[in-house]
Amino acid sequence: MDAAFDPWSPAFVADPYPAYAELRAHGRAHWYAPTLGVPPERSSRGRLVPHHEDVSALLRDRRLGRTYTHRFTHEEFGRTAPDPAHEPFHTLNDHGLLDLEGADHTRIRRLVSKAFTPRTVERLVPTVRELAAGLVGELVAAGGGDLQATVAEPLPVAVIAAMLGVPEEDEERAMLRPWSAAICGMFELNPSEETARRAVRASIEFSDYLRELIARRRAEPGDDLISALIGVEELSEQEMVSTCVLLLNAGHEATVNTTVTGWWTLLRHPEQLAALRADPDGLLSTAVEELLRYDTPLQMFERWVLDDIELGGQVIPRGAEVALLFGSANRDPALPQTSSGGTPSPTADVLDLSRTDNPHITFGAGVHYCLGAPLARLELTALFAELLRQAPTLRLAAEPEWRKGYVIRGVEELLVEV
Which of the 8 DSSP states describes residue 346? Predict the structure, then answer.
């Protein structure tokens, strides 16, 4: 039944949820089909996993990993080494938290997690609220515009840049979002050679800039994350560079896409939007969680099978790859369904901003659970609060078009009027 899964189809990208329902109805694990664009020799090695219970469990299962190189060579794992021409991207990516496993992951996560403690995030509240108010104020003063470019993108990039210690006067600051977009292109399914070239170029330029910034901070330390990491002997410079890049990339994608697709969702559900406008203080917290669940910014997260596992009567062998379908898991009818006041909530396919029992997996689970989840929630809450307050009549100016990418899913722009 995986023929319904077609991430290169614009219609599927615009609305993958009917296909997810079909996958869930027909089993717990589905072979990739050749129509996915996977070479024939790999077509039986991948599995689509659509159910919430399975996705949640596999995210926590240490028989799976984001990489296999901590245990196997490429040859031992039945894989070929990456193209040497892509080496700058892989060096950058492979030394970051997202693709590290074992002791290295534990070591670096322990060091970086200090930047995302509840107390640290709490100190950012005034800054985030002030930035959100200013950006929304500019949108309102202009009578509207592209919500993505003028509000959703600048806020999280500015916050992460400030945390890292990227000076506002540095010309490279304007390149943070383009570099990130180019690098994230490699996380899509079967990226083209042109996508790889852009990612390699961005990896080199971003790394060179960060090495230069690290050198500046060594000479003149500041009150920022890079300065704090410099003094940590357990961290190599490459690990520091890769960590900073990952924090920027992962630190804004969820906020950007949830802000934009969240408003696109609200504008298509006028009764829910009216309820939120009528009671923002009472509904905003559960609304943010529901929007994160309802249209998940990261639709798929892949894992390598390091030791044989069994799922739905199938043995999935070492060397296979499982595609954990976050978007499908978050719409699984098996999810708890409770609204405020303890009343039954509609099915998971229905938007319910008052949903209180909401165990979505948008930020992952297990050892790779998103470190920046508290910061993303703070940013989303601040942006939605300001848009509700300053733009109470915000409305759609044009139908959005979805970007071609499926894994990190979002629209090209969201034009609105206020």
Answer: P
* Confidence band, pLDDT 50/70/90 cuts, at residue 340: low
Does residue 117 sit in helix, strand or coil? coil
* Residue linked to tokens 């072979």: 31
Tell me how many domains the chain contains: 1
Q: What is the DSSP string of 34-85?
A: GGGT--GGGTTTEEEE--HHHHHHHHH-TTEES-STTT--TTTTT-PPPPGG
Q: What pLDDT was estimated at residue 276?
A: 98
> Which conformational region is residue 364 in: left (phi greater than 0), alpha (psi within -120 to 50 degrees), or beta?
left
Distance between CA atoms of residues 118 and 125, nearest Å: 11
Smallest CA-to-CA distance from 244 within 230, 266, 226, 222 is with 226
Annotate 156-205 with DSSP letters as a single string: HHHHHHHHHT--TT-GGGGGHHHHHHHHHGGGSSS--HHHHHHHHHHHHH
User: Given the structure tokens 């002997």, which residue do they identify?
Assistant: 233
Which amino acid makes up residue 394?
L
Tell me the CATH number at 225. Answer: 1.10.630.10
pLDDT at 34 over 60: no
Strands 321-325 and 46-49: parallel
Question: Which range marks the domain in which residue 393 is found?
Answer: 2-417
Residues in the chain: 418
